[in-house]
Write a structure and sequence with these properties.
The protein is of the alpha+beta class and 87 residues long. Helix content is 23%, strand content 30%. Strand 2 and strand 3 form a beta hairpin.
Length: 87
């Protein structure tokens, strides 16, 4: 897990980065909020790992603009096998 970064899913398409920042900042210091447009999810980076863990527990399942949020730690990218060319 990237210690301070969280995935936020099940977002209404009307949610803005300001909405996310406002909600998550009630539970700690938000370093960055980013929404992936047209996909219904985004990412929040909190100042500390403790804040990220606390806000995940507090806001997973919370209601925002009519949708229940899905808040999870961000996992590191998966490594692929090999690296050579396929034949």
């Amino acid at each position: 897990m990237q210690a301070n970064k969280l995935y936020v899913g099940n977002l209404s398409f009307s949610v803005t980065t300001d909405d996310l920042t406002e909600l998550f900042s009630q539970h700690g210091t938000v370093i960055e909020a980013k929404i992936i447009e047209g996909k219904g999810f985004g990412f929040i980076e909190m100042e500390t790992q403790a804040e990220a863990e606390g806000v995940r527990k507090e806001l997973d399942g919370a209601l925002l603009k009519g949708r229940n949020l899905k808040v999870n730690p961000v996992s590191p990218p998966k490594k692929t096998r090999g690296g050579g060319k396929r034949r």
